[in-house]
Amino acid sequence: MRFASKVEETIQKYRMLSPGDRVLVAVSGGPDSVALLHVLWKLKDEFDLRLEVAHLQHGIRGEEAREDARFVAGMADRLAIPFHLKELELPKIKADRGKGNLEEMAREARRHYFAALAGARDIQKVALGHTRDDQAETFLMRLLRGSGRKGLAGMAPVSSLSEIEGSPALIRPLIETSRQEIENYLADEKLNSRLDRTNLDPALLRNWIRLDLLPRLQEKIDRRLGERLAQLADGMRDEEKFLRDLTRELLPQITREGHLLHDPLLKQPIAMRRRLIRLWLEKAFGNLRGVEFDHVEAILGLTSDGPPQGRVAIPKGIEVVRSYDTLRLEKKGCVRRAACYSYTLPQGGDLIVLEAGVKIASARSSSISRPDNELEAVFDSRPLPEVLTVRNFRNGDRFVPLGMTGRKKVKDLFIDKKVPLKVRATLPLVAAGEEILWIPGYARSEIAKIGPATREVLKIKLTALAEQKRAGEFYRKSPAKR
Fold it and tell me: Among residues 86, 265, 269, 384, which one has the fewest Cβ atoms lying within 10 Å of its Cβ?
C-alpha cells in the first residue's frame, strides 16, 4: 500500500480530520515529522486543509538545534505553509525551578505552546508524528514502570490537547505506520531530515528500549513484535474505554453527596472497586497525579473486615475517612478533638448549643402525647430537677435504657447504632444531675418515663440551627419513637 494511501486510511478510520480543518503540524525536523508534514501537504486538497507548522526550540543542543529550526522553516517556506517558531531555554528554566525532569518539562512546554498557538490562530487540530514503533516503545516503557490498563493503552490516535473544554484535538496520522515505511517514503520522495543526537543516548529509557531492548526481543521472539505490541495497546485502549464508561455509570449509584457508600462498593468485584475508587478520587481532585496503586489498596483496606472507622493518608494533603457506611475526603490534620461543653437547661427553657449546631427547646404541658420523631422526647416532669444539664459525651458515661433495669455504656450504644466519631464528639446529651435522660435520635432513659400517675410532661425538642444542616446527621431512622 502506498504510504499516502495508508495514512489517509488511518485518518478516515479514526475520523481525524473534517473538511476545512485548520491543522497545526508539529515538526521537529526528524524523519517522522518531516514525513507527516509532507504527506498532509499531499492530502490537503482532498481534505480541504489549511496547514501551519510549529517548531519549538528547547535551547538544549545549541547551534545544532538552531539549525533544526532553520531546516523546518525552509521546508515550510518551500511548501508555502505558515511557520511558527518559539525558542526556550529549558536548562535555565529547570535550574531556576531547582527540580524537574527535563524530558517531562519539554513535553509540557510543547503542549502549552501548541495550545496557545492553536487558540490564537483558530486551529482545530494539532498533528503529531508518532508512529506504530513509538506506540510499541511506549507500551514497553509503561509496562516496565508498572502501569495499569490505562497506561498500557498507549497513545490514542485522537485525544484532547488539554483538559480545557473546546481545546484542539491531538491527532496522530502516522500511528499505524512503521518507522521503516517512513524511511522508505522519505527515500522515494527524496526528502531530507535532521538527526537529533539525544535520540541516540541509551541513558534515556525510551532510547534504551528502542535501540537495545526491543531489537533483542524481536530477534529472540518475533520480528513483528513491535507491530503486535502496538495492536495490544489498541486492544487495551478499547477495553479501557469500555470499563471506564461502565465505571462512570456505576459511580453515581454508590455515592451520596460526594461520599462513597461502603456496602454498595463492597458488592462490586475487586477490580471494579479499584476503578470506582480511582474515579471517585479523580472527580474530587480533577486528576490522579500522585495517586498510586498502594494508595488505592490502602483505601480498599478500609472497606475490609476490621474497625468500622478509620482513615488513610493519600496525596494532596488529604485523608480518606471511613465512618461506618461511608468513605469521605478530609483535609489532613483538619480534625480537632472536640472541646468538652456543659450547659444548663431550665424546664420550660431553650438552649442553643453552638458546638453541635443545634437548638434544644423544652416546654411543660398537661397534654400527654407521644413525640413526633426521634429528635423529640417526652418525660414525666415531677421526678426531674428544675434545671437539667446538656453536655457532650464523656468516657465512662452510662444510662438505663427505656424498658431495662441494668445500665448500658453510652459508648456501646454508639457502636451498636454506628454513630460516627465526629457526631459522638458533639452530640448533646440531656441529663438530670448525673443520670443521662436522653441521647437525641438514639435512645432515652427509663428515668421519668410516662406512666398512669403522670399529670404533667416535659417535652424536649432538638432542631438544627442551619436549614442546610440535616437533623438526620444526629440519628438513624431505625430507632423507635419514644
Answer: 269
